[in-house]
């Protein structure tokens, strides 16, 4: 996350000017002062060639141009120059003081105005048909908007995976992609989100994101996973990893319910996304026990979506799962 200040341009002032018109041996004064120009705006633009927010660690203030004042003889002031700030796709913009979300820049919304230029002032020519023009009337331009912003870069992935610590998420990422997240037999080996690219064939691939494990009470601030759930909001599909044979002898069904409850407290939008249950570490139990456990869980949850049983360690059903994910993404993109 980084902070910047954006300042839009002020509107130009209206002009007071008169044109002398000869009439019957005397002169009339006809108002012909023009309006000023609008102040320049400040925009954020998503640029595919920009991948990080490092540029903003050294550049913090961005100012648009002021509108020029109006002139006589109908010469309107020029508009202030806009400022376009290039940012990566997936940039989330919020107000620094209030933390109010101003917008997100993704593939569907490439432009975002973050500071609007001040409106121009009116010259007395604008009021020439008004009773007020006899009072030599004009207005000043308005002040442009001033904003302190937080910029935060979200991970842009097709697939997001989550679950309890030690459910095998990082091992799965290592098997299917070139990403190398830390793997160990203790909780919270993943401390930051990790991205991996999964190449299915010469033409098809998808990006997958792994976030730190979620624990009970996460929606109230416990653990690390909830802090990074926002990175899953743009994913097309979510994979909920479940350890079918937990070392602490906890009930996988209760673990699923706990995580779903935390997600529901965090965001209704996230819960409504397509989600598949992934039962991992099936190599640790006999096949009939695995099937019996999964059947019990699916029936208890009345689960209507897909579910898969895999083993990242022994590469069991990994290709089947990856091909299914790719087909889902292609179908989703086409519709």
Instruction: Please bin the fraction of helical residues.
Output: 10-25%
CATH topology of the largest domain: Rossmann fold
Instruction: Report the order of strands and helices.
Output: EEEEEEEEEEEHEEEHHEHEH
**Beta-sheet strand percentage?**
25-35%
CATH architecture descriptor text of the largest domain: 3-Layer(aba) Sandwich
The low-confidence runs, each spanning 5 or more residues with pLDDT under 50, are 184-191
Question: How many domains make up the coordinates?
Answer: 2
Mean pLDDT: 83
Count of discrete alpha- or pi-helical segments spanning 4 or more residues: 5
Main sheet, how many strands, which sense, barrel?
Answer: 6 strands, mixed
What is the CATH level 1 assignment of the largest domain?
Alpha Beta
Strand order of the largest sheet: 12-13-11-14-15-16
The structure class reads: alpha/beta
Q: What gyration radius follows from the Cα positions, in whole Å?
A: 30 Å
Secondary structure tally: strands: 16
Identify the overall geometry.
elongated
| CATH homologous superfamily descriptor of the largest domain | P-loop containing nucleotide triphosphate hydrolases
Give the N-terminus to C-terminus distance in angstroms.
Answer: 34 Å
